[in-house]
Amino acid sequence: MNAPTGETRKPRVAVVFGGRSSEHAISCVTAGSVLQAIDRDRYDVVPIGIAPDGRWVLESGDPDRLRIEGPDHLPSVDGDRASVALSQQTGSTDLIVSEPSSPPRTLGEVDVVFPLLHGPWGEDGTIQGMFEMAGVRYVGAGVLASAVSMDKAYMKIVLSASGLPVMPSVTVTRREWAADAQACRERAAALGYPLFVKPARGGSSIGISKAHDASELDACIEEAHLHDSKALVEISAEGAREVECGVLQALDGTPETSQPAELRVGGDHEFYDFAAKYLPGEHTEIDIPADLPPGVADQLRSLAARAFEAVGCEGLARVDFFVMPDQSLVVNEINTMPGFTPTSMFPKMWAASGVDYPALVDRLIRLALARDTGLR
Questions:
Q1: Theoretical Cys-Cys bridge with 139: which of 165, 166, 224, 368, CB 3.0 to 4.6 Å?
Q2: 236 marked among binding-site residues
Q3: Which intervals of the chain form a coiled coil (predicted)?
Q4: What stretch of H or E contains 357?
Q5: How far is residue 76's CA from residue 115's CA, in Å, rounded to a whole number?
C-alpha cells in the first residue's frame, strides 16, 4: 500500500451504511458511532451511504446528522449527494466519484470495507458477494454465513443439524398464505399458542408481533408479510429470560466470547420491540454480566461459540438465547452485524469484557485486513 510519493500510506477504510432495508435508519445510527470511533491517525476513512432507493453516494460522515432524534426524526442517507462506485477495471479497488457537470474523479484504492448494513441487501450476503467478486476485503461474515444467519428459518435448520437447541417453528410464505390460509393456520396452531410471528429475514424487531390466540394470527402473519414474503411462526418462550452473548474472532481465527448480558424490558412492552431497543426514554434494563449460575453462563458462552462456527461466521456476531425457567438454553438467533452503537448490546458486552468501543472497531478492521480474499 504505497502512496504516489512512495511513502507508506494509511489503510483506507470505506464505511458503508444505510441501504434499502427497513433497518436503514438503524444502520445510519450505527455508522455515526463507528465514524466517530475510528482512529483517523491510523486509518483514512471514506463514508459511503446507500440511499433507500439503492443509490451509492459519498456521504458527509457527520455523526450528529446520523442520530435518532425521536420516532418521527430517523436519520437517512442523502441520496442527492455525489454518486460513488467501485472501479470496473479488473484488479482495481479504486472508488470513483461522479457529480453533475464534473468529470469523474478517483478517491483512491480501498483496502477494506466496513459494511454497517442491517437486514436484506446488506447483512444477508448480497453485498458480501459483490465485495468477493471485486476482490475487496471487508469486515464480518462471508456470503454463506451472512445469508444463513439472516434467514431465521434456514438458521434454525443449520443450528439444529449442528446439535444446537432452537425453538420449534413453521414458515408461512405469501404464496402459501394466498393459496390455503387455513392449512397455514392449522400448521401454526399445532405449535400451540401463544406464538411469535416475524419476518424470516428481518431485524431490529420490525414487523414482529405476538399472537396470543388464533384470533390474532392472521393479522400477525399479514404484518410480517409486509416486510418479507416469508414469515416465521414460532413458539413463544413463555417465562424465559433473554440473554445475549458477543462473539469476536481472535487474529488466529478462534472465536472468543464476551460476558453474557440479560435484557429486561419494562413499561408497556410485552417483548423487546423496536421502541424498547432504540427510542429514548424507554424502560429497558440491561444486566452485564447476566445473573446466571456459573454452569449455565459457561454453557451459554460455549453454545455461542458453537453457533458462530456452525454457520461459518467470521469477525463478529451476537448470539441471542432464551434461558428457560428450568435453566435450559435455546438459541434464538445469530446476528452477523449486530447493533453497533456504544449503547448497543454487542459493544456493551465487550466493554464489560475488557474491549472498549474504539478497540473493538480497530480489532475488526485489523481482522479484515489480515484475511485473504476469495475462498478461505
A1: 368
A2: yes
A3: none
A4: helix 357-370
A5: 16
Residues of the chain with CATH 3.30.1490.20: 169-235
237 is in an annotated binding site: yes
Q: Binding site annotation covers 238? A: yes
The pLDDT-based confidence of 8 (bands split at 50, 70, 90) is confident
Portions of the chain given CATH number 3.30.470.20: 148-165+238-370
162 is in an annotated binding site: no
* Dihedral sign, Cα of residue 92, residue 95, residue 97, residue 102: negative
Instruction: Give the list of residues 6+ apart from residue 258 with CB closer than 8 angstroms, or none.
Output: 245, 246, 247, 248, 346, 349, 350, 352, 353
Cell of 120: 436484506
| Per-residue model confidence (pLDDT) at position 85 | 83
CATH 3.40.50.20 region(s) of the chain?
12-138
Segment of 5-19, 265-279, 327-341 carrying the highest mean pLDDT: 327-341
Tell me the pairing of strands 261-265 and 44-50: unpaired
CATH architecture assignment, domain 169-235:
2-Layer Sandwich (3.30)
What's the CA gap between 119 and 225, in Å, rounded? 15
d(CA 98, CA 51): 16
In the predicted structure, residue 342 carries a pLDDT above the cut 90: no
- Banded model confidence at residue 268, pLDDT cuts 50, 70, 90: low
Q: How far apart are CA 90 and CA 73, in angstroms?
A: 42
Residue 205 counted as an annotated binding residue: yes
pLDDT tens digits, one per residue of 57-96: 999 888 888 887 666 678 899 998 989 887 766 666 777 8
User: Binding site annotation covers 305?
Assistant: no
DSSP three-state, residue 83: strand
Q: Mean of the per-residue pLDDT values for the chain?
A: 89
Confidence of residue 5 (pLDDT cuts 50, 70, 90): very low
Provide the annotated active-site residues: 23, 204, 344
Contacts (Cβ under 8 Å, ≥6 apart) of 46 = 12, 13, 14, 15, 58, 95, 107, 110
